[in-house]
Design goal:
Radius of gyration: 19 Å
Oligomer: single chain
Number of helices: 6
Order of helices and strands: HHHHHH
Shape: elongated
Helix content: over 70%
């Protein structure tokens, strides 16, 4: 029988809380990804037509959204590593999910990375071509700092739960060489 939130008698309150945090935090993170993707499309459009005010606003919003996504990740991971090992990680493995499950397989996350890479390349090109307003450059630095914090926190969360660093996806590839 598969456990579902609210199902009585099978899990202690701490474990139920961990599961709830994990699920809610990931749902929030996904909403931030989708919102960030829309913002990056708007930012690239503003950059193409040199609408510096609109671009600055989008970039400032993206920095806040990155920080919010980081907070959602930290919220999702706000429980003991033992609970992750005992309950969460097995829920991402067969028979619950396909072998090698990974958040890297999330299409919206992949889109976020692609859009940000494109936005960075476009921004570098425009910055090299001429002078941009200092307030826009400042907003850009805040976005890059927010992205850096996000990556750093993700690494810390992963090492908290999987100290050896072997993700389910990497384990799958190691066990199933091509």
């Amino acid at each position: 029988m598969r456990w579902r939130p609210g199902q009585a008698g099978e899990l202690d309150p701490e474990t139920e809380r961990a599961i709830r945090r994990w699920k809610l935090g990931h749902h929030l993170f996904h909403l931030y990804l989708v919102t960030m993707n829309s913002g990056m499309h708007r930012a690239r459009a503003s950059l193409r037509v040199a609408e510096w005010g609109a671009l600055e606003s989008e970039i400032a919003d993206l920095a806040v959204l990155y920080d919010a996504a980081t907070a959602a990740m930290k919220y999702a991971a706000g429980f003991r590593p033992e609970t992750y090992e005992r309950i969460i990680r097995p829920s991402m493995s067969p028979p619950m999910l396909s072998p090698g499950f990974s958040g890297q397989l999330n299409r919206d996350h992949e889109m976020t990375l692609l859009l940000l890479r494109s936005l960075k390349a476009d921004f570098r090109k425009v910055r090299a071509e001429g002078k941009l307003p200092e307030s826009l450059l400042s907003a850009w630095r805040r976005l890059m700092s927010a992205q850096s914090r996000n990556r750093r926190e993700h690494v810390l969360i992963c090492s908290k739960f999987v100290p050896d660093g072997t993700s389910l996806l990497n384990r799958y590839f190691a066990d199933n060489p091509v």
